C-alpha cells in the first residue's frame, strides 16, 4: 500500500513537471547586466566644458596655454542641481577633449588644470563634479578623447601608455563611473609639443582597444563603454538626437571601431546582429557642443526637445543631452529655463497612466499560465510579461476601457532579457464600434513611444504582425497628454505668405493685422495669408479645452521680396544669391572663398520705394564665416547713380548673431547695394543670411 502511494505520488509529480510551461527561449544576442541597468537610465547629460570654452572653438589645436582656462564662478553643484531638477539621471564630462587639456591634475602631462590660474592650480573639476553627483544622486561618467593634439608623443607607441594611464587615473580616483565615452575623431593636424604637423594613425589598432577595454573592465566593471563600435553602447550615427523608426539594439559588431565610416547603419542597427549594442543619441542644446556667446539665441525650444525625446527615447535609444557650460563655469540661464520647462512637460505627457489595471484579452497566451498572461503588460511590474506559445509570432492584445477614454500616446516595451524580437506591429482604436488604425511601425525593443492625434476610444488594440519568435511584451501604457501650448512660430515666404504654426494641431491661433491687440474674437488662423507691405502681425495661441493662452507676440514685416532680383555680385554663384533675400535667415549665400577685395551685392527691389533703413542677418550655421562687421549701404534710382546713405559697424555681431537693423535718412530708390568693408574671417569672403529694407509707410 505504501509502495502504491509512493508510485501515485511519483506519477503525479512527473505529470506536473511534464506540464510545466517554460519561458520562451531567448532569441539572438542578449543584454548584459550592465546594459540592462543602463537601459533604465534613458536620459542623462553631456557637459562640454574645457579649454574650448575659453578659446571660443569647437576643436582646439593643442597649442593653447593652460593659463587660458580660468572660469570665474565654476560651480559643479549648480550643474548637478540643474540636471537633477531637469529629470536627468547622470552627467558625462569632457575630462579631456582633442586639444589634450585635462580637467584633473594628471601626472601624464603639464597641459592640465594644475598649471591654470583657476584655484591657483590646485583645482580638480572631476573631483568637484563626482562629489556633486553623489550629493544629488546622479551617475557620474567621463569622456576621454583618444586623440591628443597637444602631446608630443601622439602617433607614437609611447602615447598609448599615456592614454591608458589617463584612463586609469579617471577610473581610480573619482568613485563609481557609469559610462566611459570614447570619441571617433582621431589623428590630423595638431600642435604636438610644438611640431605643428599632421599625424595620422590607424584608429582600428593604434589605441590597443583590447587593452583599453580591459582597463575599464578591471577598474569599473559596471561601467558602459561607448564608441561607434561599443563594445557596450553605440553612437546613433548623427548629432541631432534621433534614431531611425526601425531601431535594433543589436549589430554585427565584429570589425566596428571608433570612427567606423558606415555610420548610417548605426541609426537602425542590424536585424541579424551578433552582439547587443544599443544606441545612444547625443545632441546639444545649441548648434555647437561648447559654449559660444553668439549662440545664446539658438538654444533649443521646448517643442524641439520634445521631438528629440520622442525620436530618441521613444525609438529605443537613450538620450544624451549636451549642456555647454559657459565661461563662468555655469549652465547658462537660457538652458536652465528650457530644461525645467521640458521636465514639467514630460511630467504632463506621462502624468496619468490610463491602461494600468484595465481589462485585457489576447489571441494567444503561453500555456494558459499566469506567468505569461496578457494582464502582465499593465500590472506595473517590468519583470513580468505577456508571452505567446512557441510558433506563434503573430498575435493581438486588446485593452478595454470601462468608458470611452481620450488617448494620444502609447508606450510599449519588450522583455529584453530574452532578446529583441518584434519586427512589425499595428496600433488601432475602436471608436463607436469600429476599428481605426492609428499607426503602424516596425521595432519596439526596450521602449517605443508613439504620438498620435487624440482619439476617444472604447478599446486599443496592438497587433504584432511579425516577430523573430514567440512574443514577449512586458509593458503597454496609454496616456492622454494635454495640448502643448507654446507661442506660435511665424514665418513669411519670399512671396509674402505668412504662416503661423504650433506643435499641437488642437491649439488655435488668433491674430490681427491692424495693430490692435488680438482676442479670441479676432481672425482665427486657418491658412497662410499675404503680407506684402509694412505690417505688424500680432498673434497668440489658445487652448479652447483649458481656456489657457500664450502672451501676445508681434512681428514687424516690411515689403514682400517676390519681385526682388540679383543684379550684381562681386564673386560667387549669382543663381544661388536669391538665398540672401528669401525671407529665411537659416539659408544663406556667400561670395567666393579666398577673395582679397571687398565684396558687395546689388539687389533690384522691383520698383521705387522711399527707404529709411536696411536689415542684415548674419549666417546662422554651426561654423559661421564671412560675417560682415563693418559695412557700407548704397541706394540708387537706376543702378547707375549711387548714393551712400550709411556706413558703420555692427556691434559685437560675431558674438550676437541676430538681425541687425540700421536706419538712415529717407531716400528714394529702386536698387540697393550692401558692401562688406570688413568681415570676420581670414579673407574677404562675405556671407549673407538675409538682407531686407525698411520703407517709409
UniProtKB/TrEMBL annotation:
InterPro entries: FA58C, Galactose-bd-like_sf, GH, GH29D-like_dom, Glyco_hydro_29, Glyco_hydro_29_N. Keywords: Glycosidase, Hydrolase, Signal. SMART domains: Alpha_L_fucos. Residues 343-438, 547-696 form the F5/8 type C domain. Gene3D superfamilies: Galactose-binding domain-like (2.60.120.260), Glycosidases (3.20.20.80). Belongs to the glycosyl hydrolase 29 family. PANTHER family: ALPHA-L-FUCOSIDASE, ALPHA-L-FUCOSIDASE-RELATED. This is alpha-L-fucosidase. It comes from Maribacter aquimaris.
Amino acid at each position: 500500500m505504501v509502495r502504491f502511494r509512493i508510485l501515485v505520488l511519483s506519477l503525479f509529480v512527473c505529470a506536473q513537471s511534464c506540464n510545466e510551461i517554460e519561458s520562451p527561449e531567448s532569441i539572438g544576442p542578449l543584454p548584459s547586466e550592465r546594459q540592462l541597468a543602463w537601459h533604465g537610465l534613458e536620459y542623462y547629460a553631456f557637459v562640454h566644458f574645457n579649454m574650448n570654452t575659453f578659446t571660443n572653438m569647437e576643436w582646439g589645436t593643442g597649442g593653447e596655454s593652460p593659463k587660458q582656462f580660468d572660469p570665474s564662478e565654476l560651480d559643479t553643484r549648480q550643474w548637478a542641481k540643474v540636471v537633477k531638477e531637469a529629470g536627468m539621471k547622470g552627467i558625462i564630462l569632457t575630462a579631456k577633449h582633442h586639444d589634450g587639456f585635462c580637467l584633473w591634475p594628471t601626472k601624464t602631462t603639464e597641459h592640465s588644470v594644475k598649471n591654470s590660474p583657476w584655484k591657483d592650480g590646485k583645482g580638480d573639476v572631476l573631483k568637484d563634479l563626482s562629489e556633486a553627483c553623489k550629493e544629488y544622486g546622479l551617475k557620474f561618467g567621463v569622456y576621454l578623447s583618444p586623440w591628443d593634439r597637444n602631446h608630443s608623443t601622439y602617433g607614437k607607441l609611447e602615447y598609448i601608455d599615456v592614454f591608458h594611464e589617463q584612463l586609469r587615473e579617471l577610473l581610480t580616483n573619482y568613485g563609481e563611473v557609469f559610462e566611459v565615452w570614447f570619441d571617433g575623431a582621431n589623428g590630423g593636424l595638431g600642435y604636438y609639443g610644438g611640431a605643428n604637423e599632421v599625424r595620422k594613425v590607424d584608429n582600428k589598432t593604434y589605441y590597443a582597444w583590447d587593452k583599453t577595454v580591459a582597463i575599464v573592465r578591471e577598474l569599473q566593471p559596471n561601467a558602459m563603454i561607448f564608441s561607434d563600435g561599443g563594445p557596450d553602447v553605440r553612437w546613433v550615427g548623427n548629432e541631432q538626437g534621433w534614431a531611425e523608426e526601425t531601431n535594433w539594439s543589436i549589430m554585427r559588431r565584429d570589425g566596428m571601431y571608433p570612427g567606423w565610416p558606415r555610420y548610417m547603419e548605426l541609426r537602425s542597427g542590424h536585424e541579424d546582429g551578433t552582439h547587443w549594442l544599443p544606441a545612444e543619441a547625443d545632441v546639444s542644446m545649441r548648434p555647437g557642443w561648447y559654449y559660444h556667446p553668439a549662440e545664446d539665441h539658438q538654444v533649443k525650444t521646448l517643442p524641439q526637445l520634445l521631438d528629440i525625446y520622442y525620436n530618441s527615447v521613444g525609438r529605443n535609444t537613450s538620450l544624451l543631452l549636451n549642456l555647454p557650460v559657459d565661461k563662468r563655469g555655469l549652465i547658462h540661464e537660457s538652458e536652465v529655463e528650457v530644461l525645467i520647462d521640458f521636465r514639467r512637460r514630460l511630467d504632463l505627457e506621462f502624468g496619468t497612466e490610463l491602461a494600468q489595471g484595465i481589462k485585457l484579452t489576447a489571441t494567444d497566451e503561453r500555456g494558459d499560465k499566469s506567468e505569461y498572461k496578457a494582464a502582465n503588460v499593465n500590472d506595473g511590474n517590468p519583470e513580468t510579461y505577456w508571452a505567446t506559445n512557441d510558433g506563434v509570432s503573430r498575435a493581438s492584445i486588446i485593452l478595454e476601457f470601462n468608458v470611452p477614454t481620450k488617448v494620444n500616446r502609447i508606450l510599449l516595451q519588450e522583455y529584453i532579457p530574452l532578446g529583441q524580437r518584434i519586427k512589425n506591429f499595428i496600433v488601432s482604436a475602436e471608436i463607436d464600434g469600429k476599428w481605426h488604425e492609428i499607426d503602424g511601425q516596425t521595432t519596439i525593443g526596450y521602449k517605443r513611444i508613439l504620438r498620435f492625434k487624440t482619439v476617444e476610444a472604447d478599446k486599443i488594440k496592438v497587433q504584432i504582425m511579425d516577430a523573430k519568435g514567440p512574443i514577449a511584451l512586458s509593458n503597454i501604457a496609454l496616456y492622454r497628454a494635454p495640448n502643448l501650448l507654446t507661442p506660435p512660430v511665424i514665418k513669411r515666404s519670399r512671396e509674402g505668405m505668412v504662416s503661423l504654426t504650433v506643435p499641437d494641431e488642437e491649439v488655435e491661433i488668433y491674430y490681427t493685422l491692424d495693430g490692435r491687440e488680438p482676442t479670441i474674437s479676432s481672425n482665427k488662423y486657418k491658412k497662410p495669408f499675404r503680407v506684402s507691405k509694412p505690417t505688424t502681425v500680432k498673434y497668440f495661441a489658445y487652448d479652447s479645452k483649458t481656456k489657457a493662452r500664450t502672451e501676445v507676440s508681434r512681428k514687424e514685416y516690411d515689403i514682400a521680396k517676390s519681385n526682388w532680383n540679383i543684379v550684381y555680385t562681386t564673386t560667387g554663384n549669382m543663381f544661388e544669391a536669391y538665398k540672401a533675400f528669401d525671407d529665411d535667415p537659416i539659408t544663406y549665400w556667400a561670395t567666393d572663398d579666398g577673395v582679397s577685395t571687398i565684396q558687395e551685392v546689388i539687389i533690384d527691389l522691383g520698383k521705387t520705394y522711399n527707404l529709411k533703413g536696411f536689415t542684415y542677418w548674419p549666417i546662422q550655421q554651426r561654423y559661421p564665416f564671412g560675417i560682415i562687421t563693418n559695412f557700407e549701404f548704397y541706394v540708387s534710382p537706376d543702378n547707375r547713380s549711387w548714393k551712400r546713405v550709411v556706413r558703420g559697424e555692427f556691434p559685437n555681431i560675431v558674438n550676437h548673431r541676430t538681425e541687425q537693423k540700421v536706419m538712415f535718412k529717407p531716400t528714394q530708390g529702386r536698387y540697393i547695394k550692401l558692401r562688406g568693408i570688413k568681415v570676420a574671417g581670414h579673407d574677404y569672403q562675405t556671407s549673407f543670411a538675409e538682407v531686407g529694407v525698411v520703407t517709409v509707410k
